[in-house]
From TrEMBL:
Domain of life from the UniProt record: Bacteria
PANTHER family: BLL0914 PROTEIN
TM ranges: 6-29, 55-74, 80-104, 111-130
The UniProt record lists the keyword Protein biosynthesis: no
Claim: Glycosyltransferase is one of the keywords in the record: no
Organism: Promicromonospora citrea
Record's keyword terms, sorted: Membrane, Transmembrane, Transmembrane helix
Matching InterPro entries: DUF1304
Protein name (database record): Membrane protein
Amino acid sequence: MIATGLVLAGLAALVHVYIFFLESVAWTAPRTRAVFGTSEQEAQTTRPLAFNQGFYNLFLAVVTAVGIVLLASGSTDGPASAGAALVLAGTGSMAAAATVLVLSDRTKARAAATQGTLPLLAVIALLAGLL
């Protein structure tokens, strides 16, 4: 189950790198505006907020990726236990953020499912494998 959890965590990290790209690099592009349902004016106005939020997503992906490398490097002792903690912190935070998103705005349920399903499954699989 640990291997399954690491694959799911890796996929979740990739999704969050993509979200980083959308929010911090391509926020005002027409395709990105269509994804987020924003007008050109809204995108220009919210650009600094989206830029910052994108980096939160990138940092969660990086924490998760470092954890994957550490956990995959050995047993669940030493650096690998730190790896498990990092993967669980990264994916747990991703899942929690998705929960906050849907609780704050029910119309964002699809976005929350997109950003939260893989991390939630990763947490479940990792905990099942570690316990």
